[in-house]
Design a protein that fits this description.
Oligomer: heterodimer
Largest sheet of chain B: 5 strands, antiparallel
Strand order of the largest sheet of chain A: 1-2-3-5-4
Number of strands of chain B: 5
CATH superfamily of the largest domain in chain A: Transferase(Phosphotransferase) domain 1
CATH topology of chain B: PF0523-like
Organism (chain A): Zygosaccharomyces rouxii (strain ATCC 2623 / CBS 732 / NBRC 1130 / NCYC 568 / NRRL Y-229)
Order of helices and strands of chain B: HEEHEHHHEEHHH
Keywords (chain A): Activator, ATP-binding, Chromosome, Cytoplasm, Hydrolase, Kinase, Nucleotide-binding, Nucleus, Phosphoprotein, Serine/threonine-protein kinase, Telomere, Transcription, Transcription regulation, Transferase, tRNA processing
Bound molecules: adenosine-5'-triphosphate
Number of helices of chain A: 8
Distance between the termini of chain A: 33 Å
Number of domains of chain A: 2
CATH topology of the largest domain in chain A: Transferase(Phosphotransferase), domain 1
Shape of chain B: globular
Protein name (chain A): EKC/KEOPS complex subunit BUD32
Enzyme class (chain A): transferase
Structural class of chain A: alpha+beta
InterPro entries (chain A): Bud32, Kinase-like_dom_sf, Prot_kinase_dom, Tyr_kinase_AS
Largest sheet of chain A: 5 strands, antiparallel
């Protein structure tokens, strides 16, 4: 990570907020800290918070850069705020948003998986079960719940925009039970377009096929079971919309195949 | 740990600091002291109200406050806006009140969060680096904590002003979190 970004962030956060970098994407840098931006320490002890920072891009004109940063920071925060209101949908809580400077504070979710299997996102979770028990009932239950989360998102006319298996974080709810949360809404949007939904599903399918190809058919089936259930719970209207999404998903898939055959 | 001792000392030195007040500073603003006090059974709200513009406080009708998280989240936003030259009102205190609001209409913010002639519960916010002045507020100061806020606030009113009438949850924690979202995003 560039020295310049680290010093910028540490100036902004002050020495009172120690931080650690955990990820650097094309657009944002993600840090964790144990300091809550405004709640008294006794209420927030030992918790971790995520700080997502969009640094200025030198190749952009400064005023365009400022307005883009503000726009993207806000759009992600707004989405988190709206999604929080949807019953059953699980997204991290927004803690603070400083759109002018490009900072978002969100609640940290997930944990380290046992036996050094890495952070509890869906990708690592599936890796963990792959060698011993790829069809473990916990895997099934979890994938159905993942499908439900995506179903809830789409049914309410939101799209994720980057639905990879690392952007699905599993939060432990019991010794044998995990609740999937969707994270990283940097490319998310409100959308009632079946195209965007079809693409979300396709992106996730590709992510699973590419990392867990042997079990992908069963995994997809479980995911889609959860997904469809949400739509089917919404009567005739749900069935109708489900058909539209599934048809478009199939179309997106065909397009993807053609592209990979040519390219 | 040293920070705590210092706070306790300040409290002892200054008799006007009530022990029920919450005095703290936010990590990114270590030089700014925030004092919060909660009063019930206030009997002279109209008197306070008539001079509220001159008082170095933000005086909030606690009916609209359900949690400390709500209050601190608004103060945090006001401090950030102040630091980066984005204040929308004339002082840090009025900005704290304004920051509680879900809408960008300042008049509405005062209507929903400001002191009224018949206010009975008041939350007094003071952001300073000097000592607290005498408030001359007649009422019972009670410990400021989540219980004292949530048990006495007007949830129906809070849902209304933050446009959360449709929100499915009745848990204070969840409502408080939805409120924080509104506070962080108001007017942006
Ligand atoms: N709320 C959170 N709880 C736990 N970990 C998180 C959280 N948010 C982000 N992370 C971690 O940080 C990584 C990057 O975050 P995020 O995807 O939001 O940033 P990004 O820059 O958009 O990344 P990318 O471009 O790689 O998708 C995530 O993959 C995850 O491991």
């Amino acid at each position: 990570m560039s020295e310049e970004i680290v010093s910028r962030v540490s100036n902004y956060l002050t020495p009172q907020v120690p931080f650690k970098a955990i990820a650097q994407g094309a657009e944002a840098v993600v840090f964790t800290t144990n300091v809550h931006p405004y709640l008294p320490a006794k209420d927030s002890n030992n918790k971790t918070y995520v700080i997502k920072y969009r640094p200025p891009k030198r190749y952009r004109h400064p005023s365009i850069d400022r307005s883009l940063t503000k726009h993207r920071t806000l759009s992600e925060s707004r989405l988190l705020a709206k999604l929080f209101l949807i019953p059953g949908l699980k997204v991290p809580q927004l803690i603070a948003c400083d759109a002018y400077n490009g900072y978002i504070w969100i609640e940290f979710l997930g944990e380290d998986l046992p036996n050094d299997a890495g952070f509890s996102n869906l990708k690592n979770f599936l890796w963990m079960f792959a060698p011993s028990d790829p069809y473990d009932p916990i895997v099934k239950e979890t994938l159905i719940k993942v499908g439900e989360q995506i179903g809830l998102l789409h049914w309410n006319d939101y799209c994720h925009g980057d639905l990879t298996s690392s952007n699905i974080v599993l939060v432990r709810e019991g010794p044998e039970s995990w609740q999937p949360y969707l994270i990283d809404f940097g490319l998310g949007s409100t959308s009632n377009m079946v195209e965007d939904k079809g693409v979300d599903l396709y992106v996730l399918e590709r992510a699973i096929v590419s990392t867990h190809s042997l079990f992908a058919d069963t995994y997809k089936e479980w995911l889609m079971h959860g997904f469809c259930q949400v739509y089917k719970n919404n009567g005739a209207e749900g069935e109708k919309k489900l058909k539209e999404v599934l048809n478009r998903f199939q179309e997106v898939r065909m397009r993807g195949r053609k592209r990979s055959m040519i390219g | 740990m040293p920070a705590k001792t210092e706070k306790q000392l300040t409290r002892k030195k200054n008799p006007k600091f009530s022990s029920m007040a919450l005095i703290s500073s936010l990590p990114q603003f270590p030089d700014t002291r925030i004092s919060l006090r909660l009063f019930h059974n206030v009997s002279n709200a109209s008197e306070i109200r008539s001079k509220v513009a001159q008082l170095p406080y933000a005086i909030i009708d606690a009916r609209s406050i359900c949690s400390l998280e709500q209050v601190y989240s608004a103060i945090y936003r006001a401090l950030v806006e102040s630091k980066y030259g984005k204040l929308k009102t004339k002082s840090l205190h009025s900005e704290c009140l304004y920051s509680l609001s879900a809408t960008s209409n300042i008049g509405e913010a005062y209507k929903n969060f400001g002191i009224k002639d018949d206010s009975q519960m008041l939350l007094v916010i003071q952001i300073v680096d000097k000592d607290q002045q005498d408030l001359q507020l007649q009422g019972d100061e009670v410990p400021l904590n989540d219980e004292n806020l949530s048990q006495n606030c007007d949830m129906t009113f809070i849902r209304k002003i933050y446009k959360l009438n449709e929100f499915h949850s009745t848990s204070t924690i969840e409502i408080s979190r939805a409120v924080v979202n509104c506070i962080q995003l108001r007017g942006l």
